[in-house]
């Protein structure tokens, strides 16, 4: 069972001792912000600390690279739900230096999949079905450009209200220093 048993044992004690009380808040972000960032483990505690965020301050969406890779994908849907249903008024896309998605090699990733039991026939079937799996696995070369691209995808989305500010930043995963790449301005969505 691996790590699951350790988590469950700890969780039982956490609940019994009511340690959850210090984290209680509502589902609405107090700072009215939704953040899209990378799933990098170095950012789990560093990013909120570097931004002076506590539990309940922000909606934080994480994926590999902090990317909006498709305007109708689940990341964009989550951002829109945070705005329309949960009261977010600003969006921050925060990439980071030394990201694992930078210069990822899709062929090497496919090789790792095959070595772990995915058949070449499965990959062929996906590609035959019209999925460009290498493009789907590809990350980016430059984190600043990647952040700019995701910011533009969000800003120009037709369902974005025009009064939402969309910012782009890059964080140093060693020091927590934030650099502004795109200072938010009102979106271009929801117009005529």
From TrEMBL:
What's one GO MF term for it? carbonate dehydratase activity
InterPro entries in the record, alphabetically? Carbonic_anhydrase, Carbonic_anhydrase_sf
Q: Where does Zn(2+) bind?
A: 38, 40, 96, 99
Question: Could you tell me which SMART domains the record lists for this protein?
Answer: Pro_CA
Which keywords does this chain's UniProt record carry?
Answer: Metal-binding, Zinc
CDD domains under this entry?
A: beta_CA_cladeD
Coiled-coil spans are none
**Major enzyme class:** lyase
> What EC number(s) would the UniProt record show?
4.2.1.1
Q: Which reaction does it catalyse?
A: hydrogencarbonate + H(+) = CO2 + H2O
Provide the cofactor list for this protein.
Zn(2+)
Q: What does this protein's record comment on cofactor binding?
A: Binds 1 zinc ion per subunit.
Report if keyword Zinc is assigned.
Answer: yes
One Pfam short name:
Pro_CA
What does the similarity note say?
Belongs to the beta-class carbonic anhydrase family.
Report what the protein is called: carbonic anhydrase
């Amino acid at each position: 069972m691996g790590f699951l048993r350790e988590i469950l044992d700890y969780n039982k004690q956490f609940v019994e001792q009511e340690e959850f009380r210090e984290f209680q808040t509502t589902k609405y972000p107090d700072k009215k912000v939704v953040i899209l960032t990378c799933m990098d483990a170095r950012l789990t505690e560093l990013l909120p600390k570097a931004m002076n965020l506590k539990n309940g301050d922000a909606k934080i969406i994480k994926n590999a690279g902090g990317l909006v890779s498709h305007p109708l994908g689940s990341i964009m849907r989550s951002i829109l739900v945070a705005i329309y249903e949960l009261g977010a008024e600003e969006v921050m896309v925060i990439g980071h230096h030394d990201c694992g998605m930078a210069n990822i090699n899709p062929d090497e990733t496919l090789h790792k999949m095959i070595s772990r039991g995915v058949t070449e026939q499965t990959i062929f079937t996906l590609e035959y079905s019209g999925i460009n799996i290498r493009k789907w696995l590809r990350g980016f070369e430059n984190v600043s450009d990647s952040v700019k691209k995701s910011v533009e995808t969000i800003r120009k989305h037709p369902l974005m209200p025009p009064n939402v500010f969309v910012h782009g930043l890059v964080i140093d995963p060693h020091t927590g220093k934030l650099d502004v790449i795109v200072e938010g301005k009102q979106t271009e969505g929801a117009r005529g």
